[in-house]
Write a structure and sequence with these properties.
By secondary structure, the chain is of the alpha+beta class. Helix content is 54%, strand content 11%. Strand 2 (206-212) and strand 3 form a beta hairpin. The protein starts with a helix and ends in a 5-residue tail after the last helix.
């Protein structure tokens, strides 16, 4: 049965359930009571109707009411403590596979089962993804809600595993409803018009691929934009320019991943990008046998923030010259003055290399989030470019710096293992050489 037919069937069943509820002429049931009735319901129609009502009513709540609802779910739909205590004792008395599995299932919070039941309703998966997007906002003020978020995360890792994802090539023939989503979700380099989008999906030397999930319909999960070139670029303007010189795709030897956008805030922490890049690499190699160089042109979103923080820290690792450099960059009067400072600035290159190769996040791994992503996928830090992105956003995040990460198919797994298991950042000799050279400001 197709997803569409199944959704129609469930919708009809839910309508039957709503009609049954309406026939009882009951007053509106409190939301938490309705959640409990979902768990207690034996009739499929009633359960689906209750699930739909919970989701519909949830999205009509204010922020305060949503936060209170999540806190109530956490407190009232947790694990059965009495049953859990008995299961723990049973395992202590007789530790074996049966008692261990019983302990595992009894220890599961009731809220997980509630989410599973709710997910059976038509279009519920997207609603639950959006619900988690709300939940993530409230964890800052109510950190205890992170426990409830772990329920969503645990289930989403199963519901959105690689086996359910569908890779689609997005081109100018793709339905407009999906193309509109691409424009809206582009998070790295804004698509300002339909003409700009056409340049990215209709040109012979451009490709755009996205992952979709059957339960989310036309909503993309993540997409990547690719430029087919005959060189490794060092600035984004040459890729996005409308008047760029195009080459026949068959003559390209380099595929440049220049933008990766996660589309669903509620799927934060659910990894798709590693699968996406590797699958796109294989698709491109099959379509264009001449391609032998797979690189990114990536932003460095955390660099400027890190450098400023280091310049103010008591235990800073910056040298006196680097202190002066950061201060000069921050004191630049305007964009032209800033560009004059960053032009061929070897000291700045060394500082960026230090940030990318030496600096570490408090949570472990590389300091920069984009770097963590590509290194974790098995890429190598290949090159650093000053004035790679002189847009307002590029200057704000990294004083215009961009970098290339290279995906060498034969080395991907080796690089991945070195980074994940031993915290080794694989970088080219050119980048490593920057760390050893003395530059003045």
């Amino acid at each position: 049965m197709s997803i569409g037919l199944l959704s129609d069937l469930l919708s009809r069943v839910a309508v039957i359930g709503r009609n049954l509820n309406a026939a009882r002429k009951q007053p509106e049931i409190p939301l938490l009571t309705l959640c409990q009735e979902i768990l207690d319901s034996r009739g499929e129609a009633t359960g689906l109707a209750h699930s739909q009502e919970v989701l519909q009513r949830y999205f009509s709540l204010s922020d305060k009411q949503k936060s209170d609802f999540f806190l109530s779910l956490l407190n009232e739909f947790g694990a059965d403590q009495d049953a859990l205590g008995k299961a723990v004792q049973a395992w202590l008395d007789d530790p074996n596979e049966t008692t261990a599995r019983a302990l595992h299932f009894i220890g599961e919070p009731v809220s997980q089962n509630l989410l599973r039941r709710m997910n059976q309703a038509p279009n519920a998966t997207l609603a639950l993804v959006n619900m988690r997007a709300d939940l993530l906002k409230y964890t800052a003020d109510s950190p205890e809600l992170k426990s409830l978020d772990s329920d969503f995360s645990h289930l989403f890792n199963s519901w959105f595993n690689r086996g359910f994802l569908e890779l689609k090539h997005i081109d100018w023939e793709t339905p407009a409803s999906i193309l509109e989503k691409i424009i809206a979700y582009e998070a790295v380099h804004e698509i300002g018009s339909w003409d700009s989008l056409r340049q990215r999906v209709a040109s012979s030397d451009r490709r755009l691929y996205g992952y979709f999930h059957p339960a989310l319909g036309i909503e993309p999960l993540i997409f990547v934009e690719v430029a087919l070139t005959d060189h490794t670029p060092g600035d984004i303007k040459s890729i996005l320019a409308n008047d760029r010189e195009q080459i026949p795709a068959e003559q390209a030897n380099t595929a440049v991943f220049y933008s990766i956008s996660n589309c669903q805030k509620g799927l934060k922490g659910i990894s798709f990008g590693n699968f996406l890049i590797k699958q796109v690499v294989e698709n491109l190699r099959h379509e264009f046998p001449n391609l032998d160089n797979f690189v990114t042109l990536s932003p460095v979103p955390g660099f400027r923030r890190w450098a400023i923080k280091q310049s103010k820290a008591e235990n800073s690792t910056l040298s006196d010259a680097q202190f002066k450099l950061v201060d000069a960059l921050e004191q630049a009067e305007d964009t032209q003055a800033l560009l004059a400072l960053t032009n061929d600035n070897k000291a700045l290159l060394k500082l960026i290399a230090h940030y990318l190769v030496v600096s570490r996040s408090a949570r472990g791994g590389a300091s920069d989030p984009v770097s963590r992503f590509h290194l974790g996928n098995g890429a190598r830090l290949e090159n650093i470019h000053l004035q790679g992105d002189n847009s307002e956003n590029g200057l704000k995040n990294s004083w215009g710096c961009m970098v290339n990460y290279q995906y060498q198919v034969k080395d991907i797994e080796k690089n991945h293992e070195a980074y994940i298991n031993n915290d080794v950042i694989i970088a080219s000799s050119k980048v490593m050489g920057l760390l050893k050279t003395k530059f003045s400001v």
